[in-house]
């Protein structure tokens, strides 16, 4: 890297003052400063991109190692499950003459599992869970009113008063 000390900077400034002139020197200095700032930002962006790509490569390697470990675990679980099924079928093969658990369930029938019954939900609880503003907007009644009161409320009013 270039070593710029105070004496070298003073020499460069004096030569620039003589060559460029005192009138144009501030504008040139601003332009040079702006260009140096852009160059520094570009270099920092390139460094950040290189470090990101290195981190991405490391993450890809880590992902591959985790995936391979997961595949190993999955294969070991599958072999263990297969061994368990084999030993289970061998152990239950001679019990009570039943070939398997499924056959035993088939012979028992529907006594073990009753027919499906839909759970009856309490509609009052569901009504109370609805917000008051929604009820008012959609026209859901919130107060109970007798039939006679409802008829009286919605009865058309006559234009003439009784005498």
Automatic annotation (TrEMBL):
The keyword Transport applies. Residues 142-163 are annotated as: Disordered. The keyword Ligase does not apply. It comes from the Bacteria. GO terms for biological process: protein transport by the Tat complex. One of its GO terms (cellular component) is TAT protein transport complex. One of its GO terms (molecular function) is protein transmembrane transporter activity. It is a single-pass membrane protein. Part of the twin-arginine translocation (Tat) system that transports large folded proteins containing a characteristic twin-arginine motif in their signal peptide across membranes. Together with TatC, TatB is part of a receptor directly interacting with Tat signal peptides. TatB may form an oligomeric binding site that transiently accommodates folded Tat precursor proteins before their translocation. NCBIfam families: tatB. Belongs to the TatB family. PANTHER family: SEC-INDEPENDENT PROTEIN TRANSLOCASE PROTEIN TATA, CHLOROPLASTIC (PTHR33162:SF1). This is Sec-independent protein translocase protein TatB. It comes from Hydrogenophaga aromaticivorans.
